[in-house]
Amino acid sequence: MVRMLIGFVVQLVSNALGLIVASWILDDVTISGTAFVVAVVIFTVVYAIAQPVFTMWAVNVPALRGGVALVATLVGLIITSLVSDGLDIKGGVTWIAATVIVWIVSLLGVFVLPLIFLKKKAEERRA
Fold first, then answer.
1. Which burial class, exposed, middle or buried, applies to 88 when counting CB atoms under 10 A from its CB (0-12, 13-18, 19+)?
2. How far apart are CA 75 and CA 69, in angstroms?
3. Is it the case that residue 96 has pLDDT exceeding 90?
4. CB-based contact 62:45 (threshold 8 Å)
């Protein structure tokens, strides 16, 4: 249970970083203050639900398997922008670019953040 909670928090922080980086890089991606926290939670929950569903659909179509995370990211962005006041994306190219940026940064975050956490824990044990 604790491992699942830690995994969810890591995914939440990674997604927040992905959305922040996308808003820094892309002029047509806007995130807003306190509503941003709600947007990150909505995005993370939608992504967590969408990815396994799309993975099940792609089981019989190998060519789709590689794009599951990207499609789940795009669906997460669309639903979050519709439901939340914390995220606004304008323009087709911006939607595609935001999807790729959020996906890459979130992916990196999911790998890097646990390593940072483990390093801190190891240093605490040594001290």
1. middle
2. 10
3. yes
4. no
